[in-house]
């Protein structure tokens, strides 16, 4: 998923091309996927990210650029994808092949949401704009999920590689500390 505008980053340019540690975030995510057991990489781009689309050396699905959920729905409707589909946001610069493989190992059919404790995000000093209660714990989505057919499952982890989404310049500084 690499079609976001990145308005909270308050930068010139496209969010997926924002450099963390000197490397565009989308390149870091594609590299993590290439170093994992993922069989095929397809990028979901939008009119918000034309330079990202032209830079990528993977097939792209054009989405409307109306937000994460709308763009995900559009990508999943494309005939080139069949479920289950691992979805990964382009703003996860700490992602690597090992944690991607761990997510794949945790998937046992259906859909899988990867969550981290909101307290972990706060402890790391990164934004936690979207949180919700899961039982007795406040959790946050990570930007990594598996969308499948069948029952939904949740994997809770404390792994910073999926906890650090770069949505603000402060988030980028935290990510750079962990590279």
From TrEMBL:
Q: Which branch of life, at top level?
A: Archaea
- InterPro entries, A to Z: MobA-like_NTP_Trfase, Nucleotide-diphossugar_trans
Which UniProt keywords are given for this protein, alphabetically ordered? Transferase
Where the record annotates domain MobA-like NTP transferase, the positions are 2-119
Concerning Pfam families, the annotation shows: NTP_transf_3
**Molecular function terms, GO-annotated:** nucleotidyltransferase activity
* Protein name per its UniProtKB record: 4-diphosphocytidyl-2C-methyl-D-erythritol synthase
User: Which source organism does the UniProt entry give?
Assistant: Haloarcula japonica (strain ATCC 49778 / DSM 6131 / JCM 7785 / NBRC 101032 / NCIMB 13157 / TR-1)
């Amino acid at each position: 998923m690499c079609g976001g505008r990145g308005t909270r980053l308050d930068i010139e340019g496209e969010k997926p091309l924002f450099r963390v540690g000197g490397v565009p975030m989308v390149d870091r995510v594609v590299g993590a996927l290439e170093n994992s057991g993922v069989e095929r990489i397809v990028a979901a781009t939008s009119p918000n990210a034309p330079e990202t689309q032209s830079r990528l050396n993977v097939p792209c699905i054009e989405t409307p650029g109306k937000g994460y959920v709308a763009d995900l729905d559009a990508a999943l409707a494309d005939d080139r994808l069949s479920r289950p589909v691992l979805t990964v946001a382009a703003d996860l610069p700490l992602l690597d092949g090992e944690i991607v493989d761990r997510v794949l190992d945790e998937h046992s059919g259906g859909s899988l949401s990867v969550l981290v404790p909101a307290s972990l995000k706060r402890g790391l000093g990164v934004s936690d704009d979207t949180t919700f209660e899961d039982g007795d714990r406040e959790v946050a989505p990570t930007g990594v999920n598996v969308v499948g057919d069948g029952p939904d499952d949740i994997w809770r982890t404390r792994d910073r590689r999926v906890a650090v989404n770069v949505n603000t310049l402060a988030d980028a500084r935290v990510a750079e500390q962990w590279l």
